[in-house]
C-alpha cells in the first residue's frame, strides 16, 4: 500500500495549477480509485485494509476539492500559506455589491419571474468566471496574496448566491 501523498495534485497526477483539465482529473481519479478501492484489500491485513480506506477517503476528498474551482483556489492558497479564515476583509465595494445582489434575489423571489431569474443567474455566472480568470493570473504571485485571498472570498460568496438561485429555481418549478 502506497503512503499518503504530499498534496491532492500529486495524488491525482496533475500539475500544481489553478487551471485543471477536468477530463484528466476524472480519468486519473477513476484509475486511482480502482487501485485503492477497499474491496481489493478484502483478504489483506487489518492494517492494509485501514490504509486502503484512508487512501480511498483521501482520494475522494482530493477529487471533490480539485473539481470545484473555489475549493481548488482555497486549497492552492492554503498549500502556500494557511489562510486566516477569521480575518476581517476590507472589501467595501464587494460588500455593497453583495447587498445589491441579495436585494435583487429577494425581489426575484417575490416576483417569481423565472426569466428575470435566469438573466440574474447568467450575470452571476459570468462574474464568477471572471473571478476564476483573475485568480489564475495572481495566485502564484506572493505580492498579490491579499488580492488572491479577496478573490477566493468573492468566489465563495458567489457560489453561495448561485446555490440560493438554484434553490429558488427549484421552488419556482414546483
The CATH architecture classification of the largest domain is Up-down Bundle
What percentage of amino acids are in beta strands? under 5%
Helix content: over 70%
- Classified by CATH, the class of the largest domain is Mainly Alpha
Provide keyphrases for this structure.
Helix Hairpins, mainly alpha, 174 residues, globular, Monooxygenase
Question: Can you lay out the helices and strands and say which pair or pack?
Answer:
Blueprint: H1 8-11, H2 22-36, H3 46-67, H4 69-80, H5 92-111, H6 114-138, H7 145-173
Helix pairs in contact: 2-3, 3-4, 4-7, 5-6, 5-7, 6-7
Description of the structure:
By secondary structure, the protein is mainly α. The chain folds into two domains: 8-67, Orthogonal Bundle (Helix Hairpins), CATH 1.10.287.110; 92-173, Monooxygenase (Up-down Bundle). Helix content is 73%, strand content 0%. The protein contains seven helices and no strands. It has helices at 8-11, 22-36, 46-67, 69-80, 92-111, 114-138, 145-173. Helix 3 packs across helix 4 (69-80), helix 5 (92-111) runs parallel beside helix 7 and helix 6 (114-138) packs antiparallel against helix 7 (145-173). It is globular and about 60 Å long. The model has no long low-confidence stretch (mean pLDDT 90).
Give a brief outline of the structure.
By secondary structure, the chain is mainly alpha-helical. The protein is built from 7 helices and no strands. The relative contact order is 0.11.
Amino acid at each position: 500500500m502506497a503512503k499518503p501523498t504530499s498534496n491532492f495534485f500529486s495524488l491525482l497526477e496533475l500539475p500544481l495549477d489553478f487551471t485543471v483539465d477536468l477530463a484528466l482529473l476524472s480519468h486519473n481519479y477513476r484509475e486511482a480509485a480502482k487501485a485503492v478501492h477497499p474491496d481489493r484489500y478484502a483478504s489483506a491485513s487489518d492494517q492494509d485494509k485501514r490504509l486502503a480506506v484512508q487512501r480511498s477517503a483521501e482520494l475522494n476528498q482530493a477529487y471533490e476539492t480539485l473539481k470545484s474551482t473555489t475549493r481548488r483556489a482555497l486549497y492552492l492558497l492554503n498549500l502556500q500559506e494557511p489562510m486566516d479564515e477569521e480575518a476581517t476583509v476590507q472589501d467595501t465595494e464587494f460588500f455593497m455589491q453583495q447587498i445589491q445582489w441579495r436585494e435583487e434575489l429577494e425581489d426575484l423571489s417575490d416576483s417569481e419571474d423565472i426569466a428575470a431569474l435566469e438573466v440574474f443567474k447568467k450575470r452571476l455566472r459570468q462574474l464568477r468566471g471572471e473571478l476564476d480568470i483573475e485568480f489564475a493570473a495572481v495566485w502564484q504571485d506572493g505580492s498579490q496574496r491579499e488580492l488572491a485571498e479577496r478573490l477566493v472570498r468573492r468566489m465563495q460568496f458567489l457560489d453561495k448566491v448561485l446555490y440560493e438561485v438554484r434553490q429558488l429555481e427549484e421552488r419556482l418549478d414546483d
